[in-house]
Amino acid sequence: MLLEDKVIIVSGVGPGLGREVAAAAVRDGASVMISARRQANLEAAAAEIDPDGKTVAWKVTDICDEAQCEALVARAVERFGRVDGLVNVAAMDGVIGGLDGDMAAWRQTLETNVMGTLGMVRATVPALKEAGGGSIVFIGSQTTFWPAPLTPQLIYGASKGALASAVWFLNRELGPSRIRVNTVVPTWMWGPPVEGYVEYMVQSEGITKEEAIGRITGPMPLGEIPSDGDVADAVTFFLSDRARMITAQTLFVNAGEFPH
Fold first, then answer.
1. Is 197 known to be catalytic?
2. How many other C-beta atoms can be found within 10 angstroms of the C-beta atom of residue 30?
3. How far apart are CA 80 and CA 258, in angstroms?
4. Of 72, 193, 244, 251, which has the fewest CB atoms closer than 10 Å, so is most exposed?
5. What percent of the chain clears pLDDT 90, i.e. is strictly above it?
6. Cβ atoms of residues 63 and 11 within 8 Å
7. C-alpha distances out from residue 232 to 119, 192, 196, 212, Å
8. What are the residue ranges of helices labelled H in the chain?
9. Is the CATH number 3.40.50.720 carried by domain 7-188+227-253?
10. Catalytic residue among 156, 237, 238, 252
11. pLDDT digit string, tens, across residues 92-127
């Protein structure tokens, strides 16, 4: 198994990508500490992924709170003995629009996506060094590279762009400690958020579900919306020893959509 005997922390575990990452890591042999702000989401995910409670533990965590990040890592070490990887899924992605956006929402997005993510990294690094190295995986966004016409997300794309820059600095700083930092960039992912958006288009525009999906898959040569699970599989590869010499890289999971 790719992640046998590894201990992974996953932030932002709800009904979407975070849950799929945690489930994929457990499937591939890891023990996983999951976190999010909502206890109900964590309880549901843990019960579904690991009913016996042997390989999944959880702790309510707001990544914008440095002390809570440190407590999460301490709990992972207490429960499983070490930390080998961190996946930063937690993010604020609901602010839609351009320069007409609300400044308070912009600040909250940047605080969560940039400061919160880097705070979670800073809290985890000592445990990774203690384990002799490890892997950090960021979840990026195509909006950083290509503003999607269906959903303008100026501040979300900018926040993920800041993390793309941070990876280069983290690579230099953490590489000597054998800590790798990589980014997985999804496009639309077939999971609860996109399913909800498709239903919104159906109801608001009076089109069929197939037409709504077709608008999304039109630019994708593979002709299919990747699933949350497809993205999670890319994440587990970066967490594994098969990627031991891969760092500071960006992997697009987008069915070939990104234009050149």
1. no
2. 27
3. 39
4. 244
5. 78
6. yes
7. 23, 15, 20, 24
8. 17-27, 39-49, 66-80, 103-110, 117-130, 154-174, 192-205, 209-217, 228-239
9. yes
10. 156
11. 877 777 788 788 989 999 999 999 999 999 999 999
